[in-house]
């Protein structure tokens, strides 16, 4: 792939031009102006990837899905995250997924995942994102082994050399590397990351991160702690379940960050039976099933993921149908 010239790492994240506000359902308040200041503010959907009957990527359907999410109140999309099954895509597929998302909603709304086993490969994916017109990228720590702090810092420093702002993704459950608040403060202080998608599930970390690195933006990383982290000061949500329920999810997020618990808490209680699937091993299958139930195309996953067990499918289907009956779809 073509490698763009490497600019110096900016002292502050570049501010993309504010795209025109899409048409929104009347039940979702428009995003506040502040949420557009940085491309990782607001509701960014970690997009599920539609596959055809032969398990090939359906790029036309994916483009339509990205546009539909934005039209229904979400602020942007995150292609090539775990929910997008990036680990089982070919390099050509992975690059085209980013290009498809940018063509559908504009680069200012696209923050690709650039995780890879090696730092050089992760940097090449960040360069590809820059070339496609994206304004930021999301990066896991090294995940081929349990990396020590020096390796983690070197990894983020290498990708940050592309000049695109990097959002760290802390997922110690899957990567076995924990970006604890002290390490995040170091990464931010050295200019390597500008925000963190926090998926540890430990909501207490929000306050420690704010103490150690007050300028580091906290993003909700797990759907089932949305309200807790929003109240603690989160600036965005890298979200899973808006793939199926974007309007209700966006309404929940806006109310939560505004401190409107009268609106947020009942919504959170209604959605939580679904939101908690985002923190389970079967999260991709569950979210795709919910998409099918609400009339979107979720469809199958590529191996080694296998279909949900009958009791799991019944639970997801029942919770989704209940949300639909409540007018949340």
Care to count the β-strands?
7
Helix content: 40-55%
Order of helices and strands: EHEHHEHEHHEHEHEHHHH
Low-pLDDT parts are 1-36
Q: What is the residue-averaged pLDDT? A: 91
Distance between the termini: 40 Å
Amount of beta strand: 5-15%
Largest sheet features? 7 strands, parallel
- By secondary-structure content and strand pairing, the structural class works out as alpha/beta
How many helix segments?
12
Radius of gyration, CA atoms, in whole angstroms:
18 Å
What general form does the structure show?
globular
Strand order of the largest sheet: 2-1-7-6-5-4-3
Characterization of the model:
The chain is α/β, with parallel strands linked by helices and 329 residues long. Helix content is 41%, strand content 9%. The chain has 12 helices and 7 strands. α1 (59-71) links the parallel β1 (42-46) and β2 (76-78). The chain is globular and about 50 Å long. 50% of the residues are buried. The model is unreliable at 1-36 (pLDDT under 50).
């Amino acid at each position: 792939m073509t490698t763009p010239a490497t600019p110096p790492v900016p002292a502050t994240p570049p501010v993309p031009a504010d795209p025109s506000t899409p048409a929104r359902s009347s039940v979702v308040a428009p995003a506040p102006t502040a949420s557009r200041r940085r491309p990782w503010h607001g509701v960014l959907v970690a997009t599920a990837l539609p596959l055809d009957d032969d398990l090939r990527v359906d790029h036309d359907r994916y483009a339509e899905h990205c546009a539909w999410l934005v039209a229904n109140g979400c602020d942007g999309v995150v292609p090539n995250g775990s929910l997008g099954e990036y680990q089982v895509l070919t390099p050509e597929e992975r690059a085209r997924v980013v290009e498809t998302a940018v063509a559908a909603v504009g680069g200012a709304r696209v923050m690709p995942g650039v995780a890879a086993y090696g730092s050089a490969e992760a940097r090449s994916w960040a360069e590809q994102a820059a070339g496609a017109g994206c304004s930021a990228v999301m990066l896991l720590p090294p995940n081929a082994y349990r990396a020590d702090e020096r390796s983690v810092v070197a990894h983020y420093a290498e990708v940050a050399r592309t000049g695109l702002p990097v959002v760290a993704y802390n997922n110690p459950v899957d990567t076995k590397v924990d970006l604890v608040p002290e390490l995040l403060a170091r990464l931010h202080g050295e200019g390597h990351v500008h925000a963190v998608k926090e998926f540890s599930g430990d909501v207490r970390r929000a306050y420690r991160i704010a103490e150690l690195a007050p300028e580091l933006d906290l993003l909700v990383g797990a759907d089932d702690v949305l309200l807790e982290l929003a109240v603690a000061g989160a600036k965005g949500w890298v979200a899973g379940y808006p793939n199926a329920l974007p309007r209700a999810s966006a309404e929940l997020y806006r109310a939560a960050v505004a401190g409107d618990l009268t609106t947020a808490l009942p919504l959170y209680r209604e959605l939580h039976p679904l939101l908690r699937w985002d923190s389970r091993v079967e999260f991709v299958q569950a979210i795709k099933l919910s998409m099918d139930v609400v009339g979107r195309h979720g469809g199958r996953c590529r191996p080694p993921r296998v279909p949900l067990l009958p009791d799991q499918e019944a639970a997801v289907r029942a919770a989704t149908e209940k949300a639909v009956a409540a007018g949340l779809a």
